[in-house]
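[job 4471] stage=fold_predict status=RUNNING
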Amino acid sequence: MATDDGFRVRPATTGDIRAIAALIQPLVDSRVLLGKDLVVLFESVQEFSVAVDAADQVIGCGALHVFWEDLGEIRTLSVDSAHTHKGVGHALIEALEARARELGLTTLFCLTFEVEFFTSHGFSVQPEVDVAPDVYAELVRSPDEGVAEFLDLARVKPNTLGNSRMVKTL
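[job 4471] inference complete, writing structure tokens
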């Protein structure tokens, strides 16, 4: 997806992974995002979209992780500090939501400190987990830390302190 602002959003490739890792590292260092090993980023390359400038340099990234047949998470959303407030995050959210609709998802979740940003994109704070008991029973089996955070499991509570659980119906 091209924009009039000198950048475009496209699916990530394996060649983008090291740039994604470098982009998110300051947020990992400041405990805004959970750290991910390089191998995990490579394994999940198909979940990522990237915003790139005219020189095809990564200036933003975000991932869509499917939890269940109708539920997904927007995760690892980051924009290079030199490109904030220029529509990059907005374009990434739009691309990730479009992909979610293509996959048949009807609900998106995120765990974030950026409540105002996500509220401006139609998300709302949801303090409690709201899934059917049978779905909860299946989700709790997932080894994915994002699923554990969504379910508010005790083992991940130190990772989620201060974050807000936000949800959007597509």
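[job 4471] summary: The mean pLDDT is 89.
[job 4471] exit 0
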